[in-house]
C-alpha cells in the first residue's frame, strides 16, 4: 500500500502578527460555541479555513497543483491527511477535511467567519478546511528542522525536507515513513476536546515549562525522542503542579491524569511500532491476539491502548512477551519484569482522578517523581531510551 501523502507549507508573517494564532482564534471560537450549545453532538464540527495565498511574483500555475487537489480522494477514503504549517521556528499540523482551488470567499460568503480576516481580498491557490490543529514544536528552530527531516519531499526524490533551501513551490507534497496519525484515537487523550483546545491551556506557561523540562530535567536528547503529545501532557501537568504545590487542599486530579497519559503515550509509541516491524510478515497465529473481545493485529496499525491494557499485555500475554524479547532485547527484562509493577503503582496513584475522585498532594508528588524522575530515572526517560535503542 503506498504511503499516505500530506502537505507542508509556510505562513507569511507579513500578513498577520501571528498567522497561526489567527487561525487558532477562529477554530477555538467555533469549538467553544459547540461546547456551549444545548445539543453539541448536533452541531457542525468546528473548523477553520487555511489558504495557500498566490504569490504576486509567480506567473505560471503551480506544476503540482493537480497532485495537491488529488489528495481529496485520499481524504474521502478516510485516510488521515495532514497540512504541516511552519514559520521556521515552530511547527503545527492540521487535520485536513477538504482541499479546493475554488474561490471559497466569493462562492460561499458565509465562510468568511471561519477564516482569519487577513485572507479577505487576497487570491489563493488552494483552500484547506482544517478540523483541528496540533502544536508539534514551539519556538525552537533546531527542533523544527529535526521534525521536518522526518518528512520526505515527494517531488525531490523522496529526500528529507530541508527547511533552508527546500521550501520552494509550496505546498510541498510529503510522506512520512512512520505513518504518524496525529489525530487518531484522540478522544481518550483530549477527553473529547480538540487538540487545539488542549494545546491552548496555559499556553505561555506550558511553553516555558517545556523548555525547562528539556533544558534542566530530561535533557535535549530525551526530549527530542518524546512524542509531541507527551510534551503537552508533561508541560500541562507541571504548570498546574508547580503553581499549586503549596496548597494542601488542592485537587491534583488534572496533573495526575496528565502524568499518566504521558507514560501511556510513550509506551504505545515504543511497543507497537517495534512489534509491527517484527511481526508484519508473520503468520496470524504469531501476531494476532484478543483484547477485551477485540482482535489486535500486532503486524499492523494498532489503535492506542490504555495503561491498564498495556500492563496486562506485558505481564500476561505470551505473543507480546515473545515479541518484546525479540524486538527489544536490550530492554525486555525491564519491560516484562519491573515496568508492569511500576505501571500498577502509577495506576493506584492515578485511579482516584480517573474515577471522579480527588488526588491529594502527596499522591501527586509520588506520581510526578515516578514519571519524570525526581530523585531517580523517570519512567518516561527509561521508555525514551528504549525507543532510541529499538
Supply the key terms.
single chain; about 400 residues; ph1033 like fold; 2 domains; two-stranded antiparallel sheet
Radius of gyration: 22 Å
- Let me know the largest β-sheet: 8 strands, mixed
Shape: globular
- How many structural units, i.e. domains? 2
Instruction: Report the order of strands and helices.
Output: EHEHEEHEHEEEHHHHHHHEEHHHHH
Number of helix segments? 16
Description:
By secondary structure, this protein is of the alpha+beta class. The protein folds into two domains: 6-176, Roll (ph1033 like fold), CATH 3.10.590; 201-389. It has 16 helices and ten strands. The chain has helices at residues 19-35, 65-76, 104-107, 141-148, 187-190, 195-200, 203-218, 220-225, 228-244, 253-279, 284-287, 307-316, 318-327, 332-354, 361-373, 379-389, and strands at 6-10, 48-53, 82-86, 91-100, 124-137, 151-153, 159-160, 172-176, 288-291, 294-297. It has an eight-stranded mixed beta sheet. The longest helix is centred in the C-terminal third of the chain and has 27 residues, at 253-279. It is globular. The model has no long low-confidence stretch (mean pLDDT 91).
Amino acid at each position: 500500500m503506498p504511503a499516505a501523502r500530506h502537505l507542508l507549507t509556510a505562513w507569511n508573517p507579513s500578513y498577520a502578527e501571528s498567522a497561526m494564532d489567527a487561525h487558532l482564534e477562529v477554530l477555538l471560537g467555533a469549538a467553544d460555541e459547540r461546547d456551549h450549545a444545548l445539543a453539541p453532538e448536533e452541531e457542525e464540527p468546528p473548523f477553520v479555513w487555511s489558504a495557500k495565498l498566490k504569490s504576486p511574483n509567480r506567473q505560471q500555475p503551480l506544476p503540482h497543483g493537480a497532485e495537491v487537489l488529488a489528495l481529496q480522494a485520499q481524504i474521502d477514503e478516510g485516510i488521515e491527511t495532514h497540512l504541516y504549517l511552519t514559520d521556521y521556528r515552530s511547527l503545527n499540523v492540521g487535520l485536513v477535511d477538504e482541499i479546493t482551488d475554488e474561490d471559497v470567499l466569493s462562492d460561499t460568503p458565509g465562510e468568511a467567519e471561519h477564516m482569519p480576516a487577513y485572507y479577505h481580498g487576497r487570491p489563493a491557490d488552494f483552500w484547506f478546511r482544517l478540523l483541528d490543529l496540533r502544536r508539534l514544536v514551539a519556538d525552537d528552530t533546531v527542533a523544527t528542522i529535526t521534525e521536518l527531516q522526518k518528512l520526505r519531499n515527494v517531488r525531490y526524490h523522496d529526500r528529507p525536507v530541508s527547511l533552508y533551501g527546500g521550501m520552494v513551490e509550496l505546498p510541498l507534497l510529503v510522506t512520512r515513513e512512520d505513518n504518524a496519525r496525529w489525530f487518531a484515537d484522540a478522544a481518550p487523550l483530549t477527553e473529547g476536546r480538540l487538540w487545539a483546545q488542549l494545546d491552548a491551556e496555559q499556553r505561555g506557561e506550558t511553553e516555558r515549562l517545556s523548555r525547562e523540562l528539556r533544558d534542566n530535567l530530561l535533557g535535549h536528547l530525551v526530549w527530542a525522542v518524546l512524542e509531541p503529545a507527551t510534551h503537552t501532557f508533561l508541560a500541562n501537568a507541571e504548570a498546574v503542579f508547580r503553581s499549586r504545590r503549596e496548597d494542601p487542599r488542592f485537587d491534583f486530579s488534572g496533573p495526575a491524569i496528565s502524568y499518566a497519559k504521558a507514560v501511556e503515550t510513550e509506551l504505545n509509541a515504543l511497543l507497537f511500532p517495534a512489534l509491527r516491524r517484527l511481526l508484519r510478515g508473520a503468520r496470524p497465529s504469531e501476531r494476532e491476539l484478543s483484547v477485551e473481545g477485540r482482535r489486535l493485529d500486532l503486524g499492523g496499525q494498532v489503535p492506542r491502548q490504555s495503561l491498564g491494557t498495556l500492563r496486562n499485555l506485558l505481564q500476561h500475554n505470551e505473543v507480546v512477551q515473545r515479541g518484546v524479547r525479540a524486538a527489544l532485547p536490550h530492554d525486555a527484562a525491564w519491560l516484562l519484569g519491573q515496568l508492569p509493577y511500576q505501571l500498577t503503582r502509577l495506576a493506584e496513584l492515578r485511579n482516584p482522578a480517573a474515577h471522579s475522585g480527588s488526588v491529594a498532594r502527596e499522591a501527586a508528588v509520588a506520581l510526578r517523581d515516578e514519571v519524570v524522575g525526581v530523585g531517580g530515572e523517570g519512567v518516561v526517560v527509561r521508555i525514551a531510551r528504549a525507543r532510541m535503542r529499538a
